[in-house]
Design brief:
Length: 665
């Protein structure tokens, strides 16, 4: 009731309660209410009944309707001329100067030649406001202005939401607006095999949408929920022939977090092997600058794009794509400044975060994609960021306007929306490389391990010293996770774990999108390191290992308290017997010998009662014993399946040849 009273007070009524409202008196005041406030209240959903002399007057009253004309511009190149007219119900044009004079005086009516014409102020001012940041100069006809077709979808959606505005537009503008707003079907593109059979329907739609944007000369944000295949859709689109002839033969550039460089290269090798890929990563990258022009795809990180910017400025790329775009959300950072200097014919941003909910981040991301589309930063802050932060009716209007502006260039699908295309469980492997410090330690341990194994003198010696060999393998696996697990005296490292970086990239994206995660590791000491980092970030979590007494209470807490986003679990202690359907994502921090044990752990979330698709990620360090274990698992799958009940059987069953293979790195 209080909110309703505030609204009616704004339009001229006074009173402490609804049944104590004073009447609006005076001809000018009543006409202002009928012309300005009445249509606005009805748009808000109010039912207003008029009686007596006012009802008779309204039956005979004239209203003016703003008519927006959008015509092809003589300038061409995607520009249109926009002009206004004001007409009454009979189609008679009214003098715009009379309308503007009334609006400037705060009047919602015009009196002319004995007639009173009511003005729907809300419709007139909103229509003008829609175009306030779309104008790019004078039009080809007097009294018109030019508008770029980049704004077509936003303008169409905004004007259609107003029942007091008529739009007369050129057919080509309407067609463009409908396609941008995804009201019209976007034409499919031939992808070729095996991609045509590999991509799910929604992924093909994503590729078609990227192609449509490219064809129209626009850039976009692919913001599908985590696990829906943004990388695959992007690679599929990148392997198509570029539509801009000037981009033919030029390489495309992917900029991503350091921890994802290897993943991009692996996915490209797997799904688009025809692309010539160059990783610009690591100390030896300087040897490859002359290869960039010959490549189809260059992959680097945000950390290195800053350092190597001068080299990249020597090239014009076909496409520049940013993965995990929150890395440039702050416009003042070096990351943001560097990537915005990259020259590319087309640009794309990938993020799993619901970007429209993070207003402060948006301006910088759109400034990379299409500079100027959201106006100057100061104007954006005043028109969108501050009103939305303040809350209330102004915040709602600003959010609606911003959503309309973003919609044509933002594609976000959630798992629940494409559930019919998805399996119950999505599994993937996320790779990382050892950090420099890890690599040095790993190399020393590996050389020492090889010497020890050689000294065993063959299979007989191995059988006698089996535990010693497993200890060596354990040390190598610990090195892949985090150097602190080794407890080496005097070892201090600035970069003790590349896998931790990858882990928190995944966690940040998942939490931003509202996911809840089970994290499994065979090493309780690794879980302790993760706990320490979570506490430093002030993230809530549950924890369970072999020493936990009240297991079911921890499970109940996690399943019922949705404010706790993570559950850290020792693989051996929590791999079976727990029902954790409160989570819809599983991360295996390190691989276990027997993947059946990992599958059982994943099934803590993937059980009867789970309503969401479960997304399971296994973190693997490239060119290490972890990768060899993974290969061995896949090769010996039938043996592993047979030893499901006896977890130790696989480890004990490792042969002399298996050990030599694991150490042949």
């Amino acid at each position: 009731e209080q909110e309703a009273l505030e609204i009616v007070t704004d339009v001229g009524f006074r009173g402490r309660r609804g049944d104590m409202l004073m009447q609006i008196r005076g001809t000018r005041e009543v006409l202002n209410f009928l012309g300005g406030a009445l249509p606005r209240l009805r748009r808000l959903g109010w039912r207003i009944d008029l009686e007596g002399i006012v009802a008779v007057f309204m039956d005979q009253a004239e209203f003016t309707t703003p008519v927006v004309h959008i015509n092809s511009s003589g300038a061409g190149n995607g520009f249109f001329d926009v002009g206004y007219e004001y007409e009454n119900a009979g189609g008679e044009s009214l003098d715009p100067s009379d309308i503007m004079r009334a609006l400037n005086m705060g009047e919602a009516f015009v009196e002319k030649k004995g007639r009173t014409i009511l003005l729907d102020i809300d419709a007139i001012e909103t229509a003008r406001e829609v175009f306030s940041d779309c104008s790019t100069g004078e039009g080809s006809e007097p009294g018109t202005f030019r508008m770029n077709d980049i704004h077509a979808a936003y303008v169409q959606a905004s004007l259609h939401s107003l029942d007091g505005v008529d739009v007369e537009a050129a057919p080509e503008w309407l067609a463009k607006a409908q396609t941008q707003n995804r009201d019209a079907k976007i034409e499919p593109v031939a992808l070729g095999e095996p991609l045509e059979s590999t991509l799910r329907d929604y992924q093909k739609s994503g590729v078609y949408w990227l192609r449509f944007l490219e064809h129209s000369g626009f850039c976009g944000i692919l913001a599908d929920e985590m696990g829906l295949g943004k990388t695959l859709q992007t690679l599929t689109w990148l392997q198509l022939q570029r539509q801009n002839e000037e981009a033919h033969g030029a390489p495309s550039l992917i900029i991503c977090p350091t921890s994802l460089v290897d993943n991009w290269a692996e996915e490209a090798e797997k799904f688009t092997p025809g692309l010539r890929v160059q990783r610009m990563h690591g100390a030896d990258r300087h040897e490859h600058w002359d290869k960039i022009a010959e490549c189809d795809l260059v992959i680097t990180s945000y950390a290195l794009i800053r350092r190597d910017l001068d080299e990249y400025l020597n090239h014009q790329f076909a496409v520049a794509a940013l993965d995990e775009a929150q890395h440039i959300k702050n416009r003042a950072t070096q990351n943001a400044a560097a990537v915005k200097k990259i020259q590319a014919h087309h640009k794309l941003v990938l993020t799993g975060t619901p970007i429209e909910n993070s207003v402060a981040d948006l301006w910088s991301i759109m400034d990379f994609l299409m500079p100027g589309y959201l106006g100057h930063h100061k104007t954006f802050r005043e028109n969108y960021e501050l009103p939305i932060q303040a809350g209330g009716p102004d915040a709602e209007l600003a959010q609606i306007k911003l959503r309309r502006k973003l919609h044509p260039f933002l594609l976000r699908r959630l798992k629940k929306e494409v559930a019919k295309d998805l399996p119950d469980k999505i599994q993937r492997i996320a790779h990382c490389s050892l950090s420099g410090d890890q690599g040095k330690v790993y190399k020393q341990l590996l050389e020492s391990a090889k010497r020890k194994v050689t000294d065993l003198g063959g299979e007989k010696g191995f059988n006698k010293s089996r535990m010693e060999v497993f200890k060596v393998l354990l040390r190598l696996r610990q090195t892949c996770c985090h150097l602190d697990l080794l407890k080496l005296p005097g070892l201090e490292s600035k970069y003790p774990s590349a896998k931790m970086e990858l882990f928190f990239e995944l966690v940040d994206e998942a939490l931003d999108a509202g996911h809840r995660i089970l994290v499994f590791s065979q090493f309780t000491s690794m879980l302790a390191i993760i706990r320490e980092e979570l506490e430093a970030r002030e993230l809530k979590y549950c924890y369970l290992d072999g020493s936990t007494k009240n297991r079911q209470e921890r499970v109940r807490t996690f399943n019922t308290d949705r404010s706790i986003p993570l559950f850290l679990i020792s693989l051996k202690a929590g791999g079976t017997g727990l029902n954790l359907t409160g989570a819809d994502m599983v991360i295996h921090f390190d691989p276990w010998w027997n993947p059946a044990v990992e599958d059982q752990a994943t099934d803590r979330a993937h059980r009867i009662g789970q309503k969401n698709t479960v997304y399971s990620v296994k973190l693997i360090t490239k060119n290490t014993v972890e990768e060899k274990v993974l290969q061995m698992q896949q090769r010996k799958k039938s043996i592993i399946d047979a030893t499901l009940e006896k977890d130790g059987a696989f480890e004990q069953g490792l042969s002399w040849n298996d050990v030599q293979e694991l150490l042949s790195l």
